[in-house]
């Protein structure tokens, strides 16, 4: 009995050591990011260095980001927030509508529509980039008008991402609908007053995913806003800092910007983590 | 519009003829048996319903016809008529003025749109005939037609699906279906940097681009294509399975009995999901750079003499990408696996322990089969997702390091998708980008649709319960 106990203790100690090592590896880049963002620009310049703890701490990089004369960072930030807010609202609404229709209603062409969308989803998104760019340009939604353009494109195609949400609706017993229909409720009423209030977790999941999307959108955003600095989102603007030739001077500024971008998104995510896990796990198991 | 093809595609090709025959028969019977209102509706859509008091439906149908009659001569025909040549009039400079000729891009795009519009009208015409038939039969049976108000309200009840789906389906048509059809057509044209519209025309070239893709001599990009395809598959394989197994291992570690602060460990890992990828990946990219943190410390501690070329050596770059992807990917797997692992009945392990099984045996014959069964579809989505994992590759390496023996500026870590992106953005080589796009689709489809049907959890839903 004793040997079993010692064996278990040893096992746990090893497990703790492993977990601590894993935690260090996973946190290291974030710690580095935060530390570098506080490096003094005045004394140590903004390039890459071979030490992680700055010699002098200062808020130089943050003051740079907030000065409107030097950079458009605040505009980029505002752009990203705007896109995220609109995309979150519309995408959630559309996904809910599509999921309800596909989960609850039986109409002609339903399976065809689902198969058709599945196949469409297998085409790489970038394939259509130039065509979308042109379509947007016709309506004046590129360069200066890139923000509404990006919102439009994200919202227009989001109906195809209904899988997780429909999966959730499928688990709500159909008997509830039928009972309500016998009582004379219309489909619209059932949807608005019964299904939606019951779907809080999946609504939060859908909204969270929709909100996080635009923060990472580099590819299409850079193409649509090309050359128009005030239409960039944070991903486009800051990626350019890292990739342009004088990134040496901008590295710590990138870190500071990264911290400012990461804080709200991460906090929101941590706060709503429970719903995210539910959605992801549900989606994974159902496939 | 997507639905118009529904009846055609859903049934197999043998049923197709029969279904089409039925449709023609229905159209004929309706005409022969119909009254004058119905007969007139064959020319003026919606006239029958209007005369029978179904104003809402009738006006809608009529409106479609009017719109079509306005659209075709005013807009559609000028493009549709040139779609076989994609334009013949070159843009010229007359003195200092540029006189624009045909714009191949517009001709192709709006030509395709016009074809869709025509198909939609034919479909609506058929709907119009069926509506007439339905109304006539109802009246003949002595029943009353629904009032306009009832028709309208049915949009919130019986026909609620139409209300819900109208906007998403239109959006997907304009911003996904139309562009995809357009780009598929581009693969059969010579649209590239020498044939940019509106200054230059481009035209149909048949299968030339596809021949270029599989040609292994001269300027053909066959060898490069095969290499990139090979690396795409290798990458997807490793990226998926390293994450899968290591993620499961970490999840089991956290789930282990007697380990405290389970929530804390999980939260630390989840950070990588929460922080936007362009921040974390770009920072990690700089960490591994030649003058980055890792090389800096290794040099300082005297462990190495020269920096390790994480991103500039072809083989090393590939390994580094996979390793960094583990950092990005494990947290997802941990989130998913944690819940699933707890679902495995504890008594399975109990009885195994009584039989004297060790930890590895238990993992091999209980945990792994269960997990593989439950997460089969997930594993497949991960695999296809990794085939198209743009962010990790592009933010870390942009496909570099470059190599002289690869054509079309492909790099050593380029996936098909990043290669496509670079062709579109940097080289404006749209013709080959479109071909590569179709290839990506084919590869993804083979795995997504082909393998999906072979999965045990799909073939045998009740298993393992």
Compact description:
The complex is a heterodimer of chains A (287) and B (465). With 287 residues, chain A is an all-alpha fold.
What does the model show?
The complex is a heterodimer of chains A (287) and B (465). Chain A has 287 residues and is an all-alpha fold. Chain A is built from 15 helices and no strands. Chain A has two domains: 2-61; 63-283, MetI-like (MetI-like fold), CATH 1.10.3720.10. Chain A is 75% helix and 0% strand. With 465 residues, chain B is mainly α. Chain B has two domains: 16-206, no CATH class; 222-459, MetI-like (MetI-like fold, Orthogonal Bundle), CATH 1.10.3720.10. Chain B has 20 helices and two strands. In chain B, a hairpin with a 2-residue loop joins strand 1 and strand 2 (97-99). The longest helix of chain B has 37 residues, at 104-140. Chain B starts with 5 loop residues before the first helix and ends in a 6-residue tail after the last helix. Chains A and B meet through helix 1, helix 4, helix 5, helix 6 and helix 7 of A and helix 1, helix 8, helix 10, helix 11 and helix 12 of B.
What is the fold's blueprint, element by element?
The complex is a heterodimer of chains A (287) and B (465).
Chain A: H1 2-37, H2 41-44, H3 60-66, H4 73-104, H5 110-121, H6 129-138, H7 146-156, H8 163-171, H9 174-182, H10 187-198, H11 200-216, H12 219-224, H13 234-243, H14 247-271, H15 273-286
Helix pairs in contact in A: 1-14, 3-14, 4-7, 4-8, 4-11, 8-15, 11-15, 13-14
Chain B: H1 6-10, H2 13-33, H3 36-41, H4 47-51, H5 55-80, E1 92-94, E2 97-99, H6 104-140, H7 148-153, H8 160-186, H9 208-213, H10 222-255, H11 262-274, H12 277-287, H13 293-300, H14 314-343, H15 346-354, H16 359-387, H17 390-396, H18 416-425, H19 430-451, H20 456-459
Antiparallel strand pairs in B: 1-2
Helix pairs in contact in B: 5-6, 6-8, 8-19, 10-14, 10-16, 11-14, 12-17, 16-19, 18-19
């Amino acid at each position: 009995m004793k040997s079993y106990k010692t064996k278990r203790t040893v096992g746990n100690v090893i497990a703790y050591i492993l977990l601590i090592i894993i935690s260090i590896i996973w946190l290291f880049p974030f710690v580095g990011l935060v530390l570098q963002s506080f490096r003094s620009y005045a004394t140590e310049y903004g390039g890459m260095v071979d030490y992680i703890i700055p010699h002098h701490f200062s808020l130089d990089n943050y003051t740079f980001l907030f000065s409107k004369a030097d950079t458009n960072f605040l505009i980029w930030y505002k752009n990203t927030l705007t896109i995220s807010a609109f995309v979150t609202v519309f995408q959630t609404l559309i996904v809910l509508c599509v999921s309800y229709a596909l989960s609850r209603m039986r109409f002609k062409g339903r399976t065809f529509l689902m198969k058709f969308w599945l196949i469409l989803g297998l085409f790489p998104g970038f394939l259509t980039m130039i065509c979308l760019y042109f379509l947007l340009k016709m309506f004046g939604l590129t360069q200066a008008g890139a923000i509404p353009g990006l919102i439009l494109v994200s919202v227009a195609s989001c109906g195809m991402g209904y899988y997780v949400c429909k999966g959730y609706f499928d688990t709500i017993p159909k008997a509830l609908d039928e009972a309500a229909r016998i009582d004379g409720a219309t489909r619209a009423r059932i949807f608005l007053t019964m299904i939606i209030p019951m779907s809080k977790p999946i609504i939060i999941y859908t909204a969270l995913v929709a909100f996080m999307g635009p923060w990472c959108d580099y590819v299409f955003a850079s193409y649509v806003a090309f050359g128009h600095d005030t239409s960039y989102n944070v991903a486009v603007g800051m990626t350019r800092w890292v990739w342009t030739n004088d990134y040496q001077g901008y590295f710590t500024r990138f870190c500071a910007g990264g911290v400012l971008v990461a804080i709200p998104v991460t906090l929101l995510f941590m706060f709503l983590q429970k719903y995210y896990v539910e959605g992801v796990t549900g989606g994974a198991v159902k496939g | 519009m997507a639905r118009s093809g529904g009846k055609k595609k859903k049934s197999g090709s043998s049923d197709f003829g029969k279904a089409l025959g039925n449709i023609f028969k229905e159209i004929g019977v309706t005409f022969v048996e119909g009254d004058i209102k119905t007969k007139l509706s064959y020319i003026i859509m919606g006239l029958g319903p209007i005369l029978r008091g179904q104003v809402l439906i009738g006006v809608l149908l009529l409106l479609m016809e009017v719109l079509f009659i306005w659209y075709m001569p005013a807009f559609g025909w000028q493009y549709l008529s040139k779609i076989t040549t994609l334009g013949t009039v070159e843009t010229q400079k007359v003195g200092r003025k540029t006189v624009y000729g045909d714009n191949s891009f517009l001709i192709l795009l709006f030509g395709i749109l016009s074809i869709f519009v025509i198909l939609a009208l034919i479909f609506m015409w058929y709907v119009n005939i069926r509506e007439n038939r339905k109304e006539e039969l109802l009246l003949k049976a002595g029943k009353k037609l629904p009032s306009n108000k009832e028709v309208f309200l049915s949009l919130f009840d019986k026909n609620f699906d139409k209300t819900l789906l109208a906007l998403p389906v239109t959006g997907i048509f304009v911003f996904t279906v139309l562009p995809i059809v357009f780009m598929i057509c581009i693969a059969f044209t010579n649209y590239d940097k020498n044939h940019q519209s509106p200054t230059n025309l481009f035209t149909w070239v048949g299968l030339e681009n596809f021949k270029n893709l599989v040609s292994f001599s001269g300027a053909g990009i066959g060898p490069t294509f095969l290499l990139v395809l090979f690396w795409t598959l290798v990458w997807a394989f490793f990226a998926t399975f390293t994450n899968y197994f290591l993620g499961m291992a970490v999840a089991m570690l956290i789930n282990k009995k007697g380990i405290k602060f389970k929530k804390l460990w999980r939260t630390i890992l989840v950070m990588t999901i929460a922080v936007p990828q362009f921040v974390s990946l770009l920072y990690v990219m700089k960490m591994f750079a030649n003058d980055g943190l890792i090389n800096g410390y290794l040099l300082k501690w005297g462990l190495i003499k020269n920096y390790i070329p994480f991103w500039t050596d072809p083989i090393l770059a590939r390994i580094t990408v996979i390793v960094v992807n583990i950092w990005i990917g494990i947290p997802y797997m941990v989130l998913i696996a944690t819940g699933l692992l707890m679902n495995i009945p504890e008594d399975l392990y109990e009885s195994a322990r009584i039989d004297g099984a060790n930890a590895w045996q238990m993992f091999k014959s209980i945990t792994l089969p269960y997990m593989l069964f439950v997460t089969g579809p997930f594993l497949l989505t991960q695999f296809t997702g990794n085939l198209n994992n743009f962010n990790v590759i592009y933010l870390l390496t942009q496909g570099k390091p470059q190599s002289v023996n690869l054509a079309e500026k492909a790099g050593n870590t380029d996936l098909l998708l990043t290669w496509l992106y670079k062709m579109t953005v940097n080289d404006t080589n749209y013709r080959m980008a479109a071909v590569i796009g179709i290839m990506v689709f084919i590869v993804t489809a083979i795995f997504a649709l082909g393998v999906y049907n072979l999965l045990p959890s799909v073939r045998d839903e009740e298993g393992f319960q």
